[in-house]
Input
Amino acid sequence: AHEIDGPIFAGEFLIDPGRLAGRGSLRGKFVPPSAFPRSVKDIAVVCPKAEFADSVRSKVESLAKEGTDGFEVEEVRIFDVYEGKGLPEGTKSIALTVAYGSSERTLKDKEVGLAFDDLQRRIGDDSVLSMR
Output
């Protein structure tokens, strides 16, 4: 009757302002993007299937931040989760992008390489994560 050919999705959000009270400012804080390019590296880690992908991402982010000196880890993002052939039984592989950057300068390949090497070493030393 309404000439709709595909599926229709609908939803409703109810925001109770009383539950938001005391949670700080509701205004977002704008942070302008850096004028300098990021340096991006990809890495895959093998972990137990029971590990949540976001907890692995968070752990890798924490390990990456420990190895930077004079610049920042701007983002660690999951781009693939694989389970199956080629992996040890009961494990999965999580592929992540690690973005290094600075708001003050362009990073040198050597310093990013050293930070990434440090990240790989820290992941190899971790009891849950291992290099793939």
About this structure: The longest strand covers residues 72-82.
